[in-house]
Amino acid sequence: MSSLSRSDVANLARLARIDMSDEELDHLATEMDVILGAVARVQEVATPEIAPTSHPIPIHNVTRPDVVVASLSPQAALSGAPAQEDARFRVPQILGEEA
Amino acid sequence: MSLTYEDVIAKYEPVLGLEVHVELNTNSKMFCGCSTVFGGEPNTQTCPVCLGMPGALPVVNEKAIESSILIGLALNCSITPFSRFSRKNYFYPDMPKNFQISQYDEPICVNGYLDVEIDTDDGVKKFRVEIERVHMEEDTGKSLHVGGATGRIHGADYSLLDYNRAGIPLVEIVTKIVPGTGRYAPEVAKAYVAQLRDILRSLGVSDVRMEQGSLRCDANVSLRLIGAEKLGTRSETKNVNSLRSVERAVRGEMIRHAELLNKGERVVQETRHFQEDTGLTRSGRSKEQAEDYRYFPEPDLVPVAPDAAWIEKLRASLPEHPSVRRNRLQEQWGVPDKEMAAMLNADALEIVEATVLLGADPTRARGWWLGEISRIANEKNVAIADLAISPKDVAEIVALVATGDLTDKLARQVVEGVINAEGSPQEVINSRGLKVVSDETALMAAIERAIAAQPETAEKIRNGHIPAAGALIGAVMKETKGQADAARVRELLLGHLGQPTN
Ligand SMILES: [Zn+2]
């Protein structure tokens, strides 16, 4: 039976880059634990004969042929960007990590 | 104090792991219909799917799946009957979605191998590189860092993103750890990438141009004391953009690790960036803390479940495997093992074959590419394929030597001229005035002059001392500026002095 501690929630928030107050963490830790508990009930009925469901509809191999279709114009592509420069998306300083 | 390579391998055993990313050469992207053409104006190849707009739905490119299965089959992998895509979540603006669609616990191909052959001190030896997985994913956009001195991310004020490359189909081929290569680890790494490249090229699934990034290799290296069980800490060298660099990077990392370990320091688990100019690596991102990408199944894509009929249809379309082709050519051309290994090491098989297909004798073609042309390439520190001499030029030169229009010596000058961009072989011959002196009257006159100049030598030859002929032949060759056929001069000279000419 899995359970979610307050520090698990804090770590998830950090990974998702969501700033959370202490009160929010307390609140969410309890709430998410209840949600997990509900989901965990499914595991009780799972048996080796039942393959895990990855998609609610049992279909596979939905593909498209390798054919080029028209792209957006760069103006349209950039139209929702908060900032742009030289037909590129301008993003704030990226700190730390190097690709 | 720096260690030699011999010091390193006397004490440590290297363990390799290689990850190769291949850009597929499909016309459209992995999950949308945007064009994959290289070099377009920024952000002209994007759409709601590859820009990660809310509500846009990805659909897998069928050809990308087929290419991935072909790669798996050529690498002796099992094709998994059921594979899924996952989201790899990370915060970096090179993917507008804030995740990359990849495959995680259910890749499309698993458990293959690739055998590579290395020329060792004990003859040609086979090493098996086991493949852990082949999986599909998508490439990322290109960032331009503005501000700061070097265009690098550190010190930059902001960055500019072009998403033309975001969503280009990528296949990642990951080996299991490769122990047991000992001193040959750098060569095995290079041979593996070279052979993988040849396979991918023969499959026609990628342009496999390392210098343009359509084939990229990350080399993981660790050392352990010889006889030890436990693996050492590994470093992961990125940015390795040529076959030669793969070899240099592995050798360089082995020495760097050994120096640290000998000093009692520890190897830091991190990304290293290979630097082409120095052959050294510089420190990149630390990997001491396992990254948490929070992989989860991609809910917008359905599983890929290739059935046996589809797989068998693809298997039937596989071209001749490069290793089979190599064996066939070796046999056809009658190449000894050692020289075959040298030809592969020089990456000359394709170019020699192209020359032979243009009518050149295989041994001659091989001789030129691995001899004079390789020598010049080494001098210039480039690959033979980058020199301005083509298989057609070499085939022409071989033909001119065969007909007696060129001597080997003159032919070397022609090769040099073609490489110096002086034109085609015939143009070089014309402009440099390289022509075999085959006018026998002129040759006889030169021979008589040589005899007159060295009467005692001529007398020795008349008395049956054949080795003395060398001096006179040399004099004739000198007088004709090397443009005579030395064998013919010898024949004429010996005949003239009453000696057998064979
Ligand atoms: Zn697109």
Description:
The complex is a heterodimer of chains A (99) and B (502). Chain A is mainly alpha-helical. Chain A has a domain at 6-45: Orthogonal Bundle (Histone, subunit A), CATH 1.10.20. Helix content of chain A is 39%, strand content 9%. Chain A is built from three helices and three strands; from the N terminus they run H-H-E-H-E-E. Chain A has a two-stranded antiparallel sheet. In chain A, a hairpin with a 2-residue loop joins strand 2 and strand 3. Chain A starts with 5 loop residues before the first helix and ends in a 7-residue tail after the last strand. The longest helix of chain B has 20 residues, at 243-262. Chain B is elongated, with a radius of gyration of 29 Å. Chain B has three domains: 5-312, no CATH class; 320-432, no CATH class; 440-496, Arc Repressor Mutant, subunit A (Orthogonal Bundle), CATH 1.10.10. Chain B contains 16 helices and 15 strands. Helix content of chain B is 38%, strand content 20%. In chain B, a hairpin with a 6-residue loop joins strand 13 (270-274) and strand 14 (281-286). With 502 residues, chain B is an alpha+beta fold. At the A-B interface, strand 1, helix 3 and strand 3 of A face strand 2, helix 2, strand 8 and strand 9 of B. Strand 3 (88-92) of chain A pairs antiparallel with strand 9 (158-162) of chain B, so a sheet runs across the interface. Zinc ion binds next to loops of chain B. Zinc ion is lined by residues 29, 32, 34, 46-47, 49-50, 167 of chain B.
Short structural summary:
Chain A has three helices and three strands, in the order H-H-E-H-E-E. With 99 residues, chain A is mainly alpha-helical. In chain A, a hairpin with a 2-residue loop joins strand 2 and strand 3.
Could you tell me the radius of gyration of chain B in angstroms?
29 Å
Oligomer: heterodimer
- Uncertain spans of chain B: none
Report the β-strand fraction of chain B as a percent range.
15-25%
Largest sheet entry of chain B:
9 strands, mixed
Largest interface, chains and sizes: A-B, 36 and 59 residues
